[in-house]
């Protein structure tokens, strides 16, 4: 997909990108909201611990006025380098339709992505050490953001498990990638989280270019574990969700 010139993209967007995603430093604490999930993952690369991911997901409003924000902070200690990533994702409406996304990467890599959905397009501004680029991707009612190495974002695509198998559009804004992935259900099996065994739904997401993603989901849809074998990536939740259903001590 070709990058758009700034002037060309400005003509096509109804809302200026400069005002697209003002919520990275904000939250919805000032409104009556419902916590959907909150926790921390340990991040593994080829079996070795390399960092953590802390996150929360909250909703406010209902029906067509519903608003869900997911925020995360990732800290990575890589060989000879450190990387910090701050993310904020907004979904709107009864069906949690993608609305806006922002990510800031600092440390050994420097990158900022800020974008929002205008009409049926996701328009994003990407700033790196090499300069600024504007990108556009198709974005229908069931388009998901799934940036590599971000565990809590699987929460949204996992909501479709009762309709599986199903194929959905997926955007990876940091990599500038748009593809279609197929969600299917493997079965129900126990996962140990913080010494507690939880009966989890094992989901598989097939990426035509990146292999299989395996995701284990708790009783209320919380992400417990993620594995992407082709990337050597795994994320393990440190403690059970607040409203999980522990079966017994492992």
Put the structure in a nutshell.
5% of the residues lie in helices and 58% in strands. It has two helices and 16 strands. The protein has a 16-stranded mixed sheet that branches.
Structure, described:
- This protein is mainly β.
- The chain has one domain (6-249).
- It is 5% helix and 58% strand.
- It is built from 2 helices and 16 strands.
- It has a 16-stranded mixed sheet that branches.
- A hairpin with a 4-residue loop joins β14 (223-228) and β15 (233-237).
- The longest helix has 7 residues, at 6-12.
- It is globular, with a radius of gyration of 18 Å.
- 33% of the residues are buried.
- Give the percentage of residues in beta strands: over 45%
Order of helical and strand elements: HEEEEEEEEEHEEEEEEE
Q: Major sheet, described briefly?
A: 16 strands, mixed
Question: How many domains, as an integer?
Answer: 1
Quaternary class: single chain
> Outline, from the CA principal axes?
globular
Radius of gyration: 18 Å
N-C termini distance? 48 Å
Average pLDDT: 85
Layout: helices, strands, pairs:
Blueprint: H1 6-12, E1 33-45, E2 48-60, E3 67-78, E4 81-92, E5 97-107, E6 111-118, E7 121-128, E8 131-138, E9 144-145, H2 154-158, E10 166-172, E11 177-193, E12 196-207, E13 211-217, E14 223-228, E15 233-237, E16 246-249
Parallel strand pairs: 9-10
Antiparallel strand pairs: 1-2, 1-15, 2-3, 3-4, 4-5, 5-6, 6-7, 7-8, 10-11, 11-12, 12-13, 12-16, 13-14, 14-15
């Amino acid at each position: 997909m070709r990058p758009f010139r700034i002037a060309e993209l400005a003509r096509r967007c109804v809302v200026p990108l400069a005002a697209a995603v003002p919520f990275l430093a904000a939250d919805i604490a000032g409104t009556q909201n419902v916590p959907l999930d909150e926790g921390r993952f340990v991040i593994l690369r080829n079996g070795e611990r390399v960092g953590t991911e802390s996150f929360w997901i909250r909703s406010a409003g209902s029906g067509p006025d519903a608003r869900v924000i997911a925020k995360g902070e990732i800290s990575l200690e890589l060989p000879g380098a450190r990387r910090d990533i701050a993310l904020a994702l907004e979904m709107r409406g009864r069906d949690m339709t993608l609305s806006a996304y922002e990510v800031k990467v600092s440390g050994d890599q420097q990158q900022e992505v800020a974008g929002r959905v205008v009409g049926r397009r996701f328009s994003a501004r990407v700033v790196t050490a090499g300069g600024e680029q504007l990108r556009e991707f198709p974005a229908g009612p069931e388009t998901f953001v799934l940036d590599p190495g971000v565990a809590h974002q699987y929460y949204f695509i996992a909501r479709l498990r009762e309709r599986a198998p199903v194929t959905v559009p997926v955007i990876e804004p940091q990599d500038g990638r748009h593809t279609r992935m197929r969600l299917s259900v493997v079965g129900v099996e126990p996962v140990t989280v913080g010494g507690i065994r939880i009966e989890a739904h094992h989901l598989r997401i097939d990426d035509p270019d990146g292999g299989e993603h395996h995701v284990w989901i708790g009783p209320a849809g919380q992400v417990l574990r993620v594995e992407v074998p082709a990337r050597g990536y795994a994320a393990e939740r440190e403690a059970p969700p607040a409203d999980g259903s522990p079966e017994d001590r492992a």
